[in-house]
Amino acid sequence: EVQLVESGGGLVKPGGSLRLSCAASGFTFSSYSMNWVRQAPGKGLEWVSSISSSSSYIYYADSVKGRFTISRDNAKNSLYLQMNSLRAEDTAVYYCAREKVGADAFDIWGQGTMVTVSS
Amino acid sequence: DIQMTQSPSSLSASVGDRVTITCQASQDISNYLNWYQQKPGKAPKLLIYDASNLETGVPSRFSGSGSGTDFTFTISSLQPEDIATYYCQQYDNLMYTFGQGTKLEIK
To answer: What is the pLDDT of residue B1?
Structure first.
């Protein structure tokens, strides 16, 4: 079964750091670009970052540029998001999502992990 | 940056109704427009990609059309299990942007 499972969420103080992980299974992880998308409580979806299959191309939303770092380990079938200098407005459910081959769309999503930034 | 204007923000319809949601881009995005369904507490699900292509396994009552700046998402005959929030999404200039969402309820 094709699956993405996020972990690493939790409660962190403003200014703190957190590292999210996304474990992939059921497909050839190294062949796909991957993304992080977040959703603040009661709000819509916001794309956060993307990384190409070989990590050659990495992009960020302006809202997280300079604070978040996306990375992947194809040997471990894992995607990561290092989040530094966290702010209250970063509070959200964070989803990892697979990019569909041949289309700029997200065809597989994880269940999400909640990040709460609060003192 | 391209802005996406999705309407309506909420919609109430009866089972069997034809439902239409629109999404307008602030500039030409060709057919780089996708539609997602999100049920409460769940991850989004891809329904339509590249404006009009039905994702594998998605019922044929869902469809999409449009190109350039104006796009339409249609449910031909609303079913109870279609209650969800629907989002459009575009890709341009190395970034993705989602519409504000349309919350669909049963009348």
So the answer is: 83
